[in-house]
Structure prediction request, 355 residues.
Amino acid sequence: MGITLLIVAGFGIYNILNMMIYEKMDSIAILKATGFSGNDVKRIFIMIALSIGVIGVMFGLVFGFLVSSLVDQIPFNTAALPRIKTFPVNYNPKFYIIGATFGIFTTYLAGYLPSRKASKVDPVVIIRGK
Amino acid sequence: MSDKVLEAIKINKHFDGAQVQHVLKDVSFSINKGDFASIVGKSGCGKSTLLYILSTMDTDYEGDLFIDNQPMRLKTEAELARVRNEKIGFVFQFHYLLNEFSVVRNVMIPGLKLGKYSEKELEDRAMEKLKIFGIDDQARKLPNQLSGGQKQRVAIARALINDPLIIMGDEPTGNLDKKNSEIVFDLFQKLAREYKQTLLIVTHDMEFAQATDHVIEMEDGRIIK
Prediction:
């Protein structure tokens, strides 16, 4: 379940970045013309992907925590476990760390391919095409 | 020899297609420090192609290119980027300013990449350049709030930020009306005369070219004068 969500979100970010590169073709061309190398351009787009990832992970963890503490309030009675009165929730920080790591890793992967494409933009083609 | 800023030796270029086109034929010339040079010719004669080779952005050619007496032939992409950053300032037909950043920030970008000055110093330098062009009052605006002529002046200021060895222009007045073309042309004159800036401008405007000190005329891939 979690993996599927990560893949879907990853494709979303991949698409956003791909579109962004088409939109920002001129900017990429001028950066290259004024002395930014392919690697610099790649770094910029990976940074964008990672900042989407980091912000997304932070929101995700906070909302996840809030929702799970709400779920924690739901009454839950079962004869098998007489001591449990509400829905059992595991707050182990391990799960939060795993979630954050995978989230950031996915966005990095999703950003890597588009940023490679951006780094290969040929400024001459763009600038002469005007 | 030592004051040669740029030297091209027998540059040849072919465009591969269904038919191979020979677009530049044994082009050799040099630009000295302080020259205000122009390349003229009809459209399709190869002048822009030549400029993009000289600018190090196009590396698919035969022949030798020296900038600041250094051969460009075998440099890697990252080394060429460094050369462009440090030694060449560009002005294109279209201004290519980044609309996300303020005018002064746009001027600073190549300088931030070079990393020779602190951000504060760079901002002062950028403001100084904008002042030369009489647009320092627009510094905090975004580029899309400026007129076409103003944008082109910002683009020239950006080309100057790293005190380049040479400024290259590809039809820098091509997109402007008569009045703004004159303003931009006067700015190039001022840079050449007062600041001893080396300039190489590609244009099809004969009037513009006549006013420069060194006219390189091209026809059909060759230099004819």
